[in-house]
Structure formats: C-alpha cells, structure tokens
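Researcher: Please predict.
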Amino acid sequence: MSIDDDHTTVMSGPAGPPGAVKKVGVGFKIAFGLVNFGLYLTVMMPALFSLPYKVQQVAPDNKALVLGIVAAAGAVVSLVAGPMAGVLSDRTRTRWGRRRPWLLGGILVGLIGAVLVALAPSVPMLLLGWVIVCVGGAGPAAAITPVVAEQVPEAQRGSMGAIVGVATQLAGVLGYTIGGLLTGNIVLLFVVPVVAFLVLAVVYMLVVPDPIVPLPQTTIRQTFRLMVFSPRKHRDFSLVWLGKFLMQMALAFLTTYQLYFLADRLGFTAAEAGQKLTLVGGIGILVTMTFAIVSGILSDKVKRRKVFIMTSSALSATGLALMGFTDGFGLFFAAVMCILGAAGMFGAVDVAMASDLVPDREQAGRWMTIYNLAASLPGAVAPLLGSVLLLIGSPSGTNYAALFLTGAGIALGTGVVTAFVRGVR
C-alpha cells in the first residue's frame, strides 16, 4: 500500500513485466472489437448525424448554436459521470464481476435517454434527454476502456488498439448509413444503435472474463479525489493525455459541424449530405482500417509509438487545412481521407501508448477513465469554441475557414507534446 499524490490510500505498484499478463486469443479480440463497435456506434452516430439532424428539426434557425449548447452540456456531464463510473467500477464487487453491471446498467439508462431525445418537442426536452444519454454512456465506457491495460500484454496492445480504431471508424461509417435510412422514423434513428450495443455487450460478457481485483472500499469524497493526479509526478501520462485532448479537439470541429458544412458551404440538403457522407465513409473505412491495422502492428513490431502519433498529427492538420478551403465535393473527399487516415493511425497507437504508461495497472479503471476525459472534454469545449469561430466575420455563422484552420493548428499541437514523452519510444 502507498499514499498517492492526492493523499488517498490506494493500491500501489507499476504495471509489471510484459509477461505478467497472458496473451489474449482470437475470441477475445473479436468480442472486444464487437463491443467497441457497439459502444462507438452509440457515440458516433449521434455525433455525426442523428443529433445534428434532430437539432435541425427542433431549432432550424439557430441550429449551430443549439447543437453547440446541447453537445457541450452532455460533455460536461460526461466529465463528472465518466471518472466517477471508472473509479467506482474499480471497487464494484458482484457475482457478475466489477465491470459488467456498469456495462449493462449504462446501456439501459442510455436507452431511456435516447427515447427522450427522439421524442423531444423542444430544446429543453432535447437537452434533458441528451444529458441522460451521457450519464448512461459513462457506465459502458468505464467497463470497456480499462480492458486493454488490465488484460492485454504490452506486446499485443498495438494490435488491440488497431481493432479499436477499426471498430470506431466502422461505427462512424455505419452511423451515416443507418442514419440516412432511418430519417423517416426518428425513434428508430436513436434507439437502433443502443439496442445493437446491448446485443453486442451480451456477446462480449459471454466471452471475456471480468476478474475482480481486491481494492479498498472508498467514500464519495475519496472517489472525487481519485480523479485528481499530479501531472509532475506522472509526467508522461499527462503528456499523452494532453496529446489526446488536442487531437480530439481538432477532430471534433469536423464531426460536430460536417453535416452543416455540406449544407452551408456545398449546398446539399440533409438527405443528400447523409448520402454523400455514406459514400465518403464507405471508402474512408478502407483507408482508416489500413492505417489503423498497419500502424498498430508496426508499432508493436518496431516497439515505437511516438513516430506514429506525430505522423497522424501532421496528416490530420493537412486534412483540416484543406477543409478550410474546400469549395467542392472532390476537395472535401480528399480532405476527409487525410483526416480518416490520421484518425485510424492515432486511434490504434494512442490507446497502446496510454496503456503502456498507466501508472498503476491495478487501478486501470481510474487511470483509463482519466485518460478518457481527454476524449470527452473536447466535446464540451469544441462545440462552443466552434460556434464562436463560425461567427468571426460572418453573422450567419458560416466561417468554416476559421473553424478548420484553427483545428489544423490544434492538431499539430499533438505532435509537439508527444515529442516530449520519455517513457516510450
């Protein structure tokens, strides 16, 4: 036992040698990939299509601002609910295990919220429903995020990261496709991804074990204190966190506003935009899968992580800069391919790098949910910052050049901070 930097008694101990965790098999990899697909389908489909579509129905005259407010409110809720779920799941003891109750319970709460969002007749009701969705989403994230750090040996983490990257991008592509097909039924538009996640979660629980690691009981006050750590003491983990935050911030500018971009800048209707995004995503998934799989496997083989993160930083910045000057679908397509390739590379290797640098493997739930804040916090900041950038010199809120060029600069920051990481090559 030791006293952590926040003066809370916790289990101590480094990650341990690479051989301390047994290699995982094909069944584990398939089940983990499927449950990540389900998780990210419930995240990506609303972010990329269904939530902007619903906001456009409820508040057509102020869609960008309302979308920013709703998305930001949900992200703020996630900032509290996510770490709470992660720390508490570390200490959950049931016959099902410590993660499974949070996985299933969170999905059911999210389902209730999804129905409320779909049926919301006004912005306040929409906001309430979305907050409930985000509260529910904290449970599955807390159950799934620590798995790589807890149950996968270092030599396989790049490959597992590639699986997560592919699942994420596939969820985004199918989110476009499913969204375009279900626009005639707003309830199914929001419910279908949650039900699909529920089915895949059951499959996952039947295949992947949920070991219970003895940890001391904690109070609510201690739980909040466990969310805080010293950046000076855990320097490398802090830098990885910051790099993740910057990359997700840059990508959030695209994911939040691309549906409106296609309408405002390129003149497509919502239905046409959905079709175009499906086409781009269908081709883009091949790009993303290639970048994710090759990068993940190579990073394991050459035992290097940083070069891949820095390359993805430059590639995403290039794509976002192109978006700022896009005036036709061809250039939009090229820009998105750059960004998707960068996202695939980053998603595969960044998970592996964060898992390598977890300060305490026995509390992987705590550390990986703190790490996951770097993905959820931009959801609170980017929509609000984006709505301000869109208004620069444009009362109608259509200055997409300012939006995407700012995103390009932020993406480059990921490569800069990664260069200072010392714990991995």
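Model: The chain is about 75% helix and 0% strand.
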